Amino acid sequence: MTLSLNDTAPDFEADTTEGKIRFHDWIGNNWAVLFSHPKDFTPVCTTELGYMAKIKPEFDKRGVKIIGLSVDPVDRHAGWANDIKETQGVAPNYPMIGDTDFNVSKLYGMLPAAASGDPAKRTAADNQTVRNVFVIGPDKKIKLILVYPMTTGRNFDEVLRVIDSLQLTAKHKVATPVNWKRGEDVIIAGSVSDDDAKKQYPQGWKAPKPYLRIVPQPKA
Q: Which of 11, 60, 75, 139 is an active site residue?
């Protein structure tokens, strides 16, 4: 199954380190980040899980819930959490899915439908496509998909930056330019006519080109 932006995020039931969940119910009216890992006790993922725990307050401020996934069972996640705390200074403070039947990995197109067998006998290389980040909105639609190789750690500061943009542009008819950060100028969306823009921005805008209309970021 191939997922695209604006597809409905597949719902599922799964065991996690914080009990059984149904994914859509767990999200509720929040935003969510689902990020996956090919195997427990893998080095790059160890650093990622620790960093996500450190910056979880930033996601909390934005009304975003975090959930991780690995194909290994939940009881192995507990041992890995100890290693993460020892090496990164903080243990995961969000649920981790145990995807031992590969159900979630298949639903999200991270493993082929034919994947089967004992997850303990699979190597990280067998599961190397399970290195994804999905940002999901309160409407349960997929807003962002990132896929990383095994050897490159993910940039979760960038995920926060994109969430800032997604949340702003969901409320206001604007777009964010290259390398935009919260508080910087934005662009009036192309779907907004000049006449409508004048009503919304009576103070006017900067326009180095007619199609590039720059205004201060609207207040959230």
A: 139
Q: Kindly name the residue from 45, 72, 99, 164 that is annotated as catalytic.
A: 45
Say which CATH superfamily domain 172-215 falls into: Antioxidant, Horf6; Chain A, domain2 (3.30.1020.10)
- Is 139 considered catalytic here? yes
Give me the CATH code for the 13-153 domain, please. Answer: 3.40.30.10
pLDDT tens for 125-168 read 888 889 999 999 999 999 999 999 999 999 999 999 999 999 99
Does the reported pTM lie above 0.90? yes
How many angstroms separate the CA atoms of 40 and 83, rounded? 10
